[in-house]
Amino acid sequence: MTDVTPAPIVVGRVRKPHGLKGELAIFPLTDSPDEVFTVGRELRVLNLGGEQVGLVTLAGSRSFHREWLVRFTGYADRTAVEDFRQHFLASTREELPALGEGEVYERDLVGFAVRDESDTPLGIVSEVYELPTGLAIEVQGPKREFLLPFRAEFVKHTDREGRRLVVAVPDGLLD
Q1: Which residues touch 52 (CB under 8 Å, ≥6 apart)?
Q2: pLDDT tens for residues 139-162?
Q3: Cα–Cα distance, 69 to 22 (Å, whole number)
Q4: What is the pLDDT of residues 79-126, one digit of tens each?
Q5: Which pLDDT score, from 0 to 100, does residue 63 have?
Q6: Which superfamily does CATH assign the domain made up of 106-167 to?
Q7: How do strand 9-18 and strand 23-28 relate by DSSP bridges?
Q8: Where are the domains of the chain?
Q9: Which of 2, 22, 151, 163 is the least crowded, having the fewest Cβ atoms under 10 Å away?
């Protein structure tokens, strides 16, 4: 098996330039934007296709309502940052704060083995969906696939190292 460099983790969506001095309004896609958007951090710029199209260094950042305002080194005014619209900011896993116990990146859930609380195999996570009601995982079982809300009442244990989830399946879901 070949070594594959993990894809960067998307940490923010660029919304628009803010003001005249080169700030950008960023919608954070991380639980800890204050730890991610720190001065001096290098971030990858991704286009809508997920391809890296640039590399920037944060020269400043501050929280602003539900967003963050950031400035990049070498971009001094509004016209210099206009082209960042409809792009995303990403970081490597190593540069991000360590995950807590039981935490996992959403993109890593695909391929996790799913077992019930009596250790019976139920299937493999094949997709993760962001639904209006919250995150849901699609599990490919032995007979068919099923969707399970990714909430504490159903996902009882996340084993990141072993790539498995222990779940409590609602009555009737597998019938």
Answers
A1: 8, 44, 45, 46, 90
A2: 998 788 899 999 989 999 998 888
A3: 10
A4: 999 999 989 999 988 888 788 787 888 878 888 899 999 998 899 999
A5: 93
A6: PRC-barrel domain (2.30.30.240)
A7: antiparallel
A8: 9-95, 106-167
A9: 2
Whether the pLDDT of residue 39 is over 60: the answer is yes
CA 68 vs CA 57, 58, 65, 150, 152: distances in Å: 15, 12, 8, 27, 29
